[in-house]
Amino acid sequence: MTAAGCWPAMDMLRSEPMQMVRLIIPVESAHRAISYLGDLGLFQFKDLNAEKSPFQRTYATQIKRCGEMARKLRFFRDQMKRTGVLSSSWSPMGTNVNLDELEVKLGEYEAELLEMNANTEKLQRSYNELLEYKLVLEKASQVFYSAEHSAIAQHREVEQALGEGSIDSPLLLEQEMSTEPSKQVKLGFVSGLVAREKSLAFERILFRSTRGNVYHRQVVVEEPVVDPVSGDKVEKNVFVVFYSGERAKNKILKICDAFGANRYPFPDDIGKQYQMITEVSGKLSELKTTVDIGQLHRANLLQSIGYEFEQWNLLVKKEKIIYHTLNMLSFDVTKKCLVGEGWCPTFATNQIQNVLNRATVDSNSQVGAIFQVLHTKDSPPTYFRTNKFTSAFQEIVDAYGVAKYQEANPGVYTIVTFPFLFAVMFGDWGHGISLFLATLYFILREKKLSNQKLGDIMEMAFGGRYVLMMMALFSIYTGLIYNEFFSVPFELFGRSAYDCRDSTCREASTVGLIKVRHTYPFGVDPKWHGTRSELPFLNSLKMKMSILLGIAQMNLGIILSYYNAKFFQNDLNVWYQFVPQMIFLNSLFGYLSLLIIIKWCTGSQADLYHVMIYMFLSPTDDLGENQLFMGQKFLQIVLLLAALVAVPWMLFPKPFLLKKQHEERHRGQSYARLDSTDDNSFELEEHKGSHGHEEFEFSEVLVHQLIHTIEFVLGAVSNTASYLRLWALSLAHSELSSVFYEKVLLLAWGFNNVFVLIIGVVVFICATVGVLLVMETLSAFLHALRLHWVEFQSKFYEGDGYKFSPFSFASIGDDEE
């Protein structure tokens, strides 16, 4: 884009200059103009109809139409998901779909699909009912067949008993033969299916309601059956209930309805039973064919919908957001035009004008749109143009607070300082390489992964892939300085400067070492690792290094406050905030940093704790053996007095000068140009303490300045101590890595057993990945985040702005209704 001349070079130090613009657009070209502005994505509209409800706005009807079409599209998506039809990822670009035509087409498709669903549901229900009926015919016939066989067997037993000449048999035979047919008891029966989980309760209720005057039989259906009513697969039993009398029959029917049991008729005659089974089987095959043909037709319809679904969905979403934006414009009936206001970057002026002119030509409008720049005292939004590399670092800053308009942006320095401070706590080039390889996977497959739905944690890691990459690269750098590869030192840059005095100390690493070569050229000498003095040496090195880094970053923050004050033309903050803060911080902790560097350079044995403590308690006492350079005592007294003077310098002058400026302004001794185009004039008003046109609350300003002064003085001490977390976490990471290496890997190696060695390697890998590469990474990340938010950004960053949110179609595809 830079080559095309449309975009100036990216500058992240201060946000883009913004301007308030009024657009006057004819009604006939308004829709097309807003659409083109959405494609451009560089204009943030202001709602000029905030007092109106959504239903009172001009384009409420069009939004309702778009909402109805969106509902139909959601219905189509649900149907495609159920059927397993995927929507096409690409759409035919050559076809321009009209919204009115699309509305008619969607209505036709919905009506056709609803009719298909209703017919399919009816056919499927009939099919399931016939399937159940067939099961009842098959299982109930087994009940009757077994009953018939048992009756024949009993009859044979009776005949055998009669043949033996029982005394009672003639009387019984005569009694049976004399019974009239009209007086014989006729049993009725009800057959059907009931859910297996309800079968016991069903049988119990039948017995109790009829007082045991029924005969109940159940047969288990092996496979689950699709229930015709609910459509779910349910395990069922076929039941047959025999009864006598109409009252019992009515009770049984009511109980069947209460338990959701499906009843089916069953013929007494065996011949009719086989005939019914044959008829039901034929109907089932016919229904199956009909249902399959209907499902195929429905799938073809959904396939044709899915081919253009994404195009329709995008069009409806675009139209809906266009009409939402049009509702933010004021509608002038007499002039037949729409008036809109909003913010845009100054570099986008020509682009927006070109877009408006193109909309006028494309819509055949006789009147062109008017682009008018307005002068306002409102605070503009903050807009930083970022790319995929810098956006994640900017998000780290914005999570604390969005920068005020054209305030110095910490995101520029965060790109370097954040991964570096992380690496100071995570210094191991073996772990850094592992983290880099994991990040490299995200970077090489970013096109594919960006289109996939990842989990919450993976989505977060993928979004910050370039932050992780920088953290890994800086960790490799600091790991080379610490000379640690999974806690193991290597002579990468030459041999160690130390060696044994003779052969007797070959196995000893604590005594007998002498310096025989030049100092190790880069990083910590590998001979330090494993010695008794390793921990005191590294503690001293990392602690002093943490203080130096902390003082340097806090000084950078105060220097940025100077550039903010100069940019906003606020001389009070330069002389009564920046200058005393620099004097106070460097008189104490800047002096400590100087002593650390001098001690490193000279190899002095001076106790810096003693020097700093007695600088306050006894500044006039002789330093003795703790003196590092000539004139140190006099310099300490001067610096101490300068620090004491800096505190009232920060506290008192600024409130009185603000009061004086306020009085002069209201006496007419200071004026502002009416045609001033200074975008930062509102900043001046804020920094001058103007709380209103009539009142100046001096007590509030004084208390605010007192709080600010106390916060800085105490913060200078606490923030410096807070940077010692760099030393603490670096030490913890190094010691954990050493423990895992020595107590797991080396211990397993010492057993001379392959099985134990494999277990040791697995445990070492799991501990390294789980603790050092995951938990320690998260811990160091959070501590680096705190150092930037609290210790660094608090020195200059107000963060009370708001983001530039332009009307754009760029992210419309990610939004789900």
Automatic annotation (TrEMBL):
TM region(s), chain numbering: 420-444, 465-482, 545-563, 575-598, 634-652, 754-775
Topological category with respect to the lipid bilayer: Multi-pass membrane protein
Keyword Protease: no
Subcellular location(s) of the protein: Membrane
GO cellular component terms listed in the entry, alphabetical order: vacuolar proton-transporting V-type ATPase, V0 domain
One Gene Ontology molecular-function label: proton-transporting ATPase activity, rotational mechanism
Origin: domain of life: Eukaryota
One of the GO BP terms on file: vacuolar acidification
Coiled coil: 99-126
This protein's UniProt keywords: Coiled coil, Hydrogen ion transport, Ion transport, Membrane, Transmembrane, Transmembrane helix, Transport
Family: Belongs to the V-ATPase 116 kDa subunit family.
Protein's name according to its UniProt entry: V-type proton ATPase subunit a
Organism from which the protein derives: Sesamum alatum
